[in-house]
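Sequence in, structure out. Go.
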Amino acid sequence: MILPRLATTLLLSVALAACQTTPPAPPAPSVQAPPGIVYAGGDGSSMANAVIIQTELRGGAGVRSEYVWLSQRYPGYKRKLQALMHKDGKSYDRLDITTADGRELSVYFDITAIFGKF
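Output:
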């Protein structure tokens, strides 16, 4: 009697495990904007996917918000180069960085809404 119960319990355990799904991976951490800053757009991987910086704040808040975004998205990053670029009537900041794990990336910020306004 014990053997059939053990076999049934084992069979039910295997069947139940097969029906369960793996929980989805947690989403990429969202980036919290400082007060008065709004982040929109993409992941910054290209001009077409640029992170859009929007603010009414003055005194370099836009540039500081780029560094905040980078530090949250790529903790421990090192900034190598920063360049102002213009394309199709839009203004971009391109920041070349090295991530904490050694990857070299260019990250694009669309600063059209704030460029030259303050």
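Check: Residues 30-118 form one domain. Confidence is low (pLDDT under 50) at residues 21-28.
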